[in-house]
């Protein structure tokens, strides 16, 4: 072939690839400014806005908080008392105008911790001088199955009596930012509300979760276990429409009990807590030893916190666990490496998110089972962005018993990402959820199915094998551009830029 012909073939190939990359999607269109316009389905559902997650919704950078205490290791003994004493002293300080009491700097060295470190007050940052062997290393000693760093407020959400009212619509679609209610006069702008969606026998039946094929330990789903709550805040009230700060992530359907709205308070939630620049390790006796620390860091009952630049090694379960009542937490630039445990259920959930409006980005794992994962009844949105997993032993994705609203964006794994009916695995995991979106992920293989009712799941721009999942014969998810990444490269980043540019 003459050189000119070779160039022509190359140019033609590039044109074909470019057309494939920029072809029109059935779910969205790309505007000239790079923003996206989403196309509703026959019921009005769209892929929702996932940009309002993480520390202050991504509207503020994680700050470098001023150091107010500096400590050094205790030597060969336990450093737990030294660290906890410093935390308690800072907790007694008055917060500044931004809500910070100050940072505690743990100087380079090895800190042996025989128990658990707790942070129960707002505005405290625990900071090391590096997350490698020459930096700040915290070692969980002993044989207790425990969390090493526990960050948590107290209490639980409380309904404001007399505020509850019904959603009047027959169907509220995914992606919308308002609901129509019977008594809008019960509310004002700024109120924190819960959108309550009751579990019903009809929903369980139509989802076919009352007839999971049984094996020892299988528990069929019951309606009373699926009274779902979505926390939101009111941004505007226009007539009987209440506008909210986060999108609807699961259809609200009158035929399945509809929905109600009520105000709530949560006085015990803390705010503005961070953990950063530390190497965490757990002592262990063997690769399958389980009598040692299970989690490096756990956040619960908190608004606006972060974990950044930490590494965990040898814990049985997690580097970071973001629990049910943790909101607006960013976990970034962190690694969960070389867990030590039996490789079986309940272990090796490297970055686990069970709360709402949380962001895990730029993280890495090795030897995990469920590396980027959410648990039962996790009501988002939540986002996992630009993360890697290697030497995996199970799958990434929503794990069991129904989650709503998660984005897996630019996840690279040598294993699987699955969104499907897990059937009788575990105690009867069943359908893992709805409005789960895979975007430009790279995998060994993936199964993305849509449940019989209550929304859709999406797989867009996946590079890897598509397979049938745990149980064949289930409805397929919404697939597009299998084998080819799409534009924009990141859904989360595109939505964040568009939202911040439009303020």
CATH superfamily of the largest domain: Single-stranded right-handed beta-helix, Pectin lyase-like
Number of domains: 2
Number of helices: 4
CATH structural fold name of the largest domain: Pectate Lyase C-like
**In terms of structural class, how would the helical and strand content be classed?**
mainly beta
Quaternary form: single chain
**Low-confidence residue ranges:** 1-22
Radius of gyration, in angstroms, nearest whole number: 23 Å
Task: Kindly provide the name of the CATH class of the largest domain.
Answer: Mainly Beta
Outline: globular
Helix content: under 10%
Largest sheet: 18 strands, parallel
Percent range for β-strand residues: 35-45%
Strand elements, count? 39
**What is the rounded distance between the termini?**
56 Å
CATH architectural name of the largest domain: 3 Solenoid
Give a verbal description of the structure:
With 503 residues, the chain is mainly beta. The chain folds into 2 domains: 55-152 and 268-501, 3 Solenoid (Pectate Lyase C-like), CATH 2.160.20.10; 158-265. The chain is built from 4 helices and 39 strands. The strands form 5 sheets. The chain has an 18-stranded parallel sheet that branches. α2 links the parallel β3 (67-71) and β4. The termini are far apart. Residues 1-22 have low confidence and may be disordered.
């Amino acid at each position: 072939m003459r050189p000119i012909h070779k160039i022509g073939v190359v140019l033609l190939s590039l044109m074909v690839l470019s057309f494939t990359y920029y072809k029109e999607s059935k779910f969205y269109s790309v505007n000239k400014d790079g923003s996206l316009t989403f196309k509703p389905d026959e019921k009005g559902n769209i892929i929702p806005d996932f940009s309002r997650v993480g520390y202050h919704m991504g509207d503020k950078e994680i700050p470098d908080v001023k150091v107010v205490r500096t400590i050094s290791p205790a030597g060969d003994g336990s450093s737990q008392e030294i660290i906890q004493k410093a935390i308690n002293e800072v907790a007694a300080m008055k917060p500044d105008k931004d809500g910070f009491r100050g940072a505690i700097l743990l100087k380079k060295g090895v800190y042996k911790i025989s128990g658990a470190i707790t942070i129960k007050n707002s505005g405290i940052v625990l900071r090391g001088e590096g997350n490698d062997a020459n930096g700040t290393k915290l070692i969980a000693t002993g044989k207790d199955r425990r969390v090493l760093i526990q960050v948590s407020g107290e209490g639980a959400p409380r309904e404001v009596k007399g505020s509850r009212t019904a959603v009047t619509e027959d169907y509220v679609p995914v992606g919308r930012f308002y609901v129509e209610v019977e008594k809008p006069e019960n509310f004002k702008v700024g109120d924190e509300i819960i959108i309550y969606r009751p579990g019903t026998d009809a929903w369980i039946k139509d989802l076919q979760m009352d007839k999971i094929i049984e094996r020892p330990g299988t528990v069929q789903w019951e309606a009373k276990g699926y009274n779902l709550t979505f926390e939101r805040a009111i941004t505007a009230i226009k007539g009987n429409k209440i506008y909210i700060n986060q999108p609807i992530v699961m259809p609200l359907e009158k035929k399945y009990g509809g929905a109600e709205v009520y105000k709530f308070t949560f006085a015990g939630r803390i705010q503005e807590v961070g953990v950063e620049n530390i190497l965490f390790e757990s002592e262990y006796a063997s690769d399958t030893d389980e009598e040692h620390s299970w989690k490096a860091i756990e956040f619960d009952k908190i608004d606006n916190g972060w974990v950044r630049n930490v590494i965990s090694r040898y814990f049985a379960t997690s580097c970071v666990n973001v629990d049910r009542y943790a909101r607006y937490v960013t976990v970034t630039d962190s690694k969960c490496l070389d867990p030590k445990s039996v490789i079986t259920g309940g272990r090796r959930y490297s970055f686990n998110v069970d709360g709402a409006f949380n962001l895990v980005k730029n993280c890495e794992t090795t030897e995990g089972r469920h590396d980027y994962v959410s648990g039962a009844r996790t009501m988002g949105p939540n986002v996992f962005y630009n993360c890697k997993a290697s030497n995996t032993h199970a799958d990434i994705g929503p794990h069991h018993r129904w989650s709503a609203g998660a984005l897996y964006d630019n996840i690279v794994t040598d294993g699987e990402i699955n969104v499907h009916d897990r059937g009788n695995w575990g105690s009867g995991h069943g359908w893992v959820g709805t409005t789960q979106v895979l975007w430009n992920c790279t995998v060994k293989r993936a199964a993305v199915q849509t449940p019989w009712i209550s929304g859709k799941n999406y797989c867009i721009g996946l590079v890897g094998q598509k397979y049938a999942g745990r149980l064949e014969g289930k409805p397929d998810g919404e697939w597009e551009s299998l084998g080819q990444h799409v534009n924009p490269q990141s859904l989360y980043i595109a939505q964040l830029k568009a939202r911040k540019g439009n303020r």
